[in-house]
Amino acid sequence: MPEINVRQLVKTFGGQRALDGVSFSVEEGELFTLLGPSGCGKSTTLLSIAGFQRPDEGSITVAGTTFFDAGTRVNIAAERRNLGIVFQSYAVWPHMTVFENLAFPLKVRRVRKRDVRARVTEVLDLVEMGEYAGRYPHQLSGGQQQRVALARALVYSPEVLLLDEPFSNLDAKLRERARSWVKELQRNLGLTTIFVTHDQDEALSMSDRVVVMNRGRIQQIGTPEEVYRRPANRFVAEFVGRVNLIDGVVAERDGATVVVDIGDSSHRLRVQAPGADRASGTVTLAFRPEAVTVLPSNSTNGTNTWEGDVHAVAFLGDHYEYDVRVGSLPLTVQSGQRVAGDRIKVHIPQDALSILADEPA
Amino acid sequence: MPAGAVQLLTWALVVTCVVGPFLPLLYASFRDRPLYEDGGVFSTIGYRQVLGDAAFWHAALNTLQYAVETTALAVVGGAAIAILVARTDLPARGVLGKLILLPLLLPSLGIVLGWIVVWGPGGYLTVLADERLHVPTLAINTIPGMSLIEAARLLPIAFLTCEAALARADSSLEDAARSAGAGPLRVLRSVTVPMLRPALLNSGTLIFTLAIASLGIPLLLGAQRGINTISTYLYLSWTNGVSPDPPLVTAGAVLLLLVATVLLLIRNRLLGAEARFVSVGGRAGRKALLELRGLRWVFAAIIALYLALSTLIPVLGLALMSVVVILTPLIAPWKLFTWAHWHTIAEGQFRSAIEHSVLISVAGAIVTTAVVTLATLVAHRSRFPLRRTLPFVMLYPRATPGLIIGIGFFWAYLLTGAVGDYLRSSIWGIMVAFCVRDLPFAYVVMYPTLARIGEELDRAGRSVGAGWWLTSRRIVLPLLRPAILAAFILMFVELLNDYDPALFLVKPGTEVIGTLMLSEFIQGTTGPVAALALVQVLATVVVLGVAAVVLKTRVTGENDA
Question: Which of A251, A280, A290, B190 is least enclosed, having the fewest CB within 10 Å?
Answer without folding.
Answer: A280
